Amino acid sequence: MQALDTLLSRVSVGALAEPAPSGEALDRILQAGLCAPDHGGLAPWRFMLIRGAARAAFADVIEAALRARDPDAPAPLIDKQRGKFLRAPLVIALGARIREGHKVPVAEQLLAVGAGAMNLLNAAHALGFGAIWVSGANAADPAVAAALGLAPPDRLLGFLLVGTPAGTVAAPGRPALTAHVTEWKGACPSEHAAA
Ligand SMILES: Cc1cc2nc3c(=O)[nH]c(=O)nc-3n(C[C@H](O)[C@H](O)[C@H](O)COP(=O)(O)O)c2cc1C
Fold this sequence. Notes:
- The chain is an alpha+beta fold.
- The protein has a single domain (3-170), classed as 3-Layer(aba) Sandwich (NADH Oxidase).
- Helices cover 45% and strands 16% of the residues.
- It is built from 9 helices and 5 strands, in the order αβαβααβαβααβαα.
- It has helices at residues 3-9, 23-33, 54-69, 75-87, 106-126, 136-140, 142-147, 177-180, 190-193, and strands at residues 16-17, 45-51, 90-96, 130-134, 155-165.
- It is globular.
- The structure holds flavin mononucleotide.
- Flavin mononucleotide is lined by residues 11-12, 132-136, 158, 172.
């Protein structure tokens, strides 16, 4: 697949089956993640692989964190949260190693990890795998981050669920360029100037 075709055809895949990428394919995907732009060469990426039997242990972490956040969490919600991580053939937790007080702003350090995550998604797609980036309350929960070895100021930015597309993947509609791209010609765009 040509590089640009890969970028233009990537789509998030929530319905995943085995196999997950492994061995050389997984190494290449992870290497792509480390090819993201990185202001100051801080290398903030911390990609944590959760697979095989470790998924059950991580599901236990997710359940304990959910129960701590909401002691009345209903059983179906607990099952849903556990299942998300139990069913994914591979989970890549996205950690950001943050340097506070550095001349490179924290926002740029986070962007470098986001760019790395995007490279992971594109590389997985290029090799025929499917993936989706999810976050939610689990990603924001300090107990989940701590279980993954991340302590403040380091951050957990979410999880990539990775595997093989379980079925046909529908191509999503993408926004029109006109809604998101303007050409700046040296004066305020008229839509702003009118305000
Ligand atoms: C930082 C981040 C967090 C996200 N968290 C979730 C999530 O928790 N649940 C979800 O269904 N989609 C989440 N998404 C959106 C999906 O990853 C995906 O982008 C969306 O379903 C659109 O699909 P597409 O990537 O094919 O355009 C998140 C996206 C980003 C960038």
